[in-house]
Amino acid sequence: MSRKSRSEGTAEPDFEQSLSQLEELVSRLERGDLPLAEALTVFEQGVALTRQCHEQLATAQQRVEILLKEGGAARVAAFAPGGENE
Description:
- The chain has 2 helices and 2 strands; from the N terminus they run E-E-H-H.
- By secondary structure, it is mainly α.
- The protein has a domain at about 10-65: Exonuclease VII, small subunit (Helix Hairpins).
- The protein has a two-stranded antiparallel sheet.
- Helix 1 (about 15-30) runs antiparallel to helix 2.
- It is elongated, with a radius of gyration of 18 Å.
């Protein structure tokens, strides 16, 4: 589901969509067959998507920290695969 950007009023793609778009841009750049001007445009798009993904991850991390908050002190625990968190 897309969400609306508060400042722009436009639909912002979710994290998975942004990451998929970023992977496509990286693939295009790695091929090395783009003219310089187009490569710069694609790179700029990639930087914007990277920033957007970073912001979405930071927001998710804050939400997790809030959910783990216990007794007025945040309890942040490292993730351990297989449910081995203490």
